[in-house]
Amino acid sequence: MQALMMNSQLMISSILKHAEKAFPTQEIVSVTVDNPLHRYTYKDFGARSRKLANALTTLGAKFGDRIGTLAWNDYRHLELYYAVSGSGMVCHTINPKLFPEQVAYIINHAEDKFIFVDVLVFPLIEALKDHLKKVEKIIVMTSPAAMPETSMDNVVCYETLLEAENDSFEWPEFDENTASGMCYTSGTTGNPKGVVYSHRSTILHALVGALPDSTGARAEEVCMPIVPMFHVNAWGVPYASIMVGSKLVMPGPKLADGETLHKLIEGEQVTYSSGVPTIWMALLDYLNKTGKRVNSLKTAGTGGAACPIGIIETFNKKYGTTVKQGWGMTEMSPLGTIYSPTAEMADYTQEQLIGLQAKQGRCVFGVELKIVDEDNNELPWDGVAFGALKVRGPWIASGYYGMSQTPGDNDCPVDSDGWLNTGDVAMIHPNGFMQITDRTKDVIKTGGEWVSSIDIENAAASHTDIAEAAAIGRYHPKWTERPLLIAIKQPGANIDKDALMAFLKDKLHKWAVPDDVVFVEELPHTATGKLNKLALREKFKDYEFPAA
Ligand code: AMP
Questions:
Q1: CB of 528 closer than 6 A to ligand 1?
Q2: Inter-residue contact 479 to 447 (CB < 8 Å)
Q3: Helix/strand/coil (H, E, C) string of 116-173?
C-alpha cells in the first residue's frame, strides 16, 4: 500500500525559504576584506541569494553546471551555497591552500564554468589563468572599490553583478537526488577525488547534524564555523544552523588567528564553534598569553584529526567549555560519529568525561559502522579488537566523480560488500564509543604488533611541556619498524628526550614507547590542518635510530 503523504522533494532552497520567513531578523556577521564586520539579516540574505540566482542565469549558467568557489567563510560564500545549489547548479568548493597545480587539476576535472573567488585568493587564479580550460568567467567576491587590477578580460565584480539584478526568483523544485555540491578530497597520495553531494543527502545530514547530541544547533545559539566552507561544507554547519535559525558568525580569512577568533567570540557572544584541533590550539595559545577568556563559548566542536587531550582538558577545566569531538570524512558529508554522553554518565568524574571526549564518539542515526579484520570478518564492539572501519548510509559517497561506481573496483571507495572503506583503523567500546586508532597507512608495525601513532601522539601531548607531537614508523633492522616521535616543546619548556621517554613509559605499552624523540620548531600540516605524516615520512626518510 502506498502512503498518502505529499512527496515534496528535499531541496536545499527550502532551508533558505524557511529561514528567511521564520527568522527574518536573525543576524549573519562576517569578516571580509572590504568590511571587517559586515552584518545583515536572514531577510537580506534571502533577497541577495535570489539576486545571485538571477545573476547566474544572466551569466548563462545552466542546470547541472559546476560553479567553483575559492573563498573563506563569509556571507557571500553562503549566498553562493544557496543560490548555486538552489537553482540547480553544483556548488563546487575548492581549497585555496592546496598546491596551485592541484587547484588547476580540480577545476579542470570538475569542468567548472565559473569561478567565484575571494579577493585575497585572486592572485592564485591569475597565476593559473592559462591552465583553466573551461572556465568562462571569474567573479571576484568583493565590492567595486576593492576590485584588484588585472589584465584578464573575463573578470567580473560580485557586487556589480548583484546590483544589476532584482530579488524576485522562484526556487525550482526538481529531483532531490540531483547533485548540489562537490568537494575534492585532499588525499595525500594520487590526484584529488571528487565527492558529489545531493540535495537529499545534504538535507538529511543537516537534520541529523542539528540534533541536540550532534551540534545542538538552535535558534538561541550563536554559531561560528571556523572549519572552512571549502572543507566538506564547513561540516554542514551552514545548512544545519540556518535550518534552525541560529545567529551565524563567519570569521572570513581569519581562521587561524587567535586574536580575531577571541574578539568574535566575545563580541558576538558565540556559544558554539567548530574547528580542527590546530585552530583550538591557536585560540588557547592566545588566551593563555593574554589571560583573556571565552565565557560565552559553551561548546567547541572538533574533528578532522584526533584532538589532543591537552586541548580537551584546558577547555574543560580552565574555561568551562565542553569539547565535542566528532569524526567523519569528506566522503561522509562529513558526520559519522560524535560525543554524546548519556544520563548514566552523569556521575562520571571530570577525568572520565575527558577520557570520553578524547574518543571519536557514537555513530549518529543514519550512519552504520563496522570494524573488520584482514579477511573482512566483522569484529566485536568490545573495546579490545580493532580493525578497518567501514560505514554506510544515505549521506555517504557511493563513488567519486568520473571514476568507477562499481563496488569492489579499485577506484571505487565502496567495497564489494556495499560498505565504504574509510581507510581508518578503529576499535568500538561496549558503550558504543568509537575510537580511531590510526589511518591504515599510518599504523606502525613493529615486530608483529600494531602500534597506534595516535596513541603515542596523545600520550606525548598530555605532557605539559609538549605543544604538539607526531609519531611515524621508521625502518629498524630488527623490528622492521619502530616509532619515532617528533615533538614541539611549549614555549620556554626545557624538557629533554630522556625525560619525555620516561614519561611515556608510564603511559604506553612497552613496544609502543618510541625509540627516539626529535624536537622541532614546526610540524607540517595539510591544507585542512591535519598533521602531514607523508611530509614527515619524507623528511625523515634517511633517519636511522641511534644504536641501542
Ligand atoms: P577529510 O576527508 O579530509 O575530512 O579526512 C577524513 C579523515 O580525517 C578520516 O578518515 C580520519 O582519518 C581523519 N579524522 C577525521 N576526524 C577525526 C577524529 N576526530 N579523530 C581522528 N581522525 C579523524
A1: yes
A2: yes
A3: EECHHHHHHHHHHHHHCCCCCEEEECCCHHHCCCCCCCCEEEHHHHHHCCCCCCCCCC
Phi and psi torsions of 195, nearest 5°: -95, 135
Beta strands in 318-385 (DSSP E): 322-328, 335-338, 362-363, 368-372
Spatial contact of 93 and 80, defined as CB atoms under 8 Å apart: no
Place of cell 531541496: 11
Cα 95 to ligand 1 centroid, rounded to whole Å? 17
Q: Supply φ then ψ for residue 165, to 5 degrees.
A: -110, 160
Q: How far is CA 521 from the centre of its chain?
A: 26
Residue of the CA atom closest to atom 8 of ligand 1: 304
Instruction: Report the separation in Å between the CA atom of 207 and the middle of ligand 1, taken as the mean of its atom positions.
Output: 21
CB 422 within 8 A of CB 431: no
- 35-85: pLDDT as tens digits: 999 999 999 999 999 999 999 999 999 999 999 999 999 999 999 999 999
- Alpha helices for 403-494 (secondary structure H): 453-461
470 Cα: distance to centroid of ligand 1 (angstroms): 15
Concerning whether 330 is annotated as a catalytic residue, the answer is: no
Helix (H, G, I), strand (E, B) or coil at 423: strand
Segment holding 279, helix H or strand E: helix 277-290
Distance CA 108, CA 33 (A): 28
pLDDT of residue 255: 84
Any atom of ligand 1 within 6 Å of the Cβ of 274 = no
Longest Cα–Cα distance in the chain:
75
Q: What is d(CA 126, CA 235) in angstroms, rounded to the nearest whole number?
A: 29
Q: Which domains does the chain have, with CATH numbers?
A: 12-255 (3.40.50.12780), 367-439 (2.30.38.10), 443-539 (3.30.300.30)
Length of the chain: 548
- β-pairing, 27-30 vs 155-157, is unpaired
Nearest CA to 16 out of 46, 54, 39, 55 is that of 46
pLDDT of residue 478: 84
The one-letter amino acid code at 445 reads K
Residues 6+ positions from 214 with CB-CB distance below 8 Å: 208, 240, 326, 335, 338, 364
What is the spatial order of strands in the sheet that 466-476 belongs to? 466-476, 480-489, 516-519
- Which of 214, 231, 233, 329 to mutate for ligand 1's pocket (most ligand atoms within 8 Å of CB)? 329
For residue 439, give the ligand 1 atom closest to its CA: 12
Q: Which residue from 425, 530, 533, 534 has its CB within 8 A of the most atoms of ligand 1, so it is best to mutate?
A: 530
Sites in the chain below the pLDDT cut of 50 = none
Catalytic, 505? Answer no
Q: What is the pLDDT of residues 403-420, one digit of tens each?
A: 999 999 989 999 999 999
- Residues 507 and 483: their CA atoms lie apart, in Å, by 15
Query: Which secondary structure element, helix H or strand E, spans residue 76, and what is its range?
Result: helix 75-86
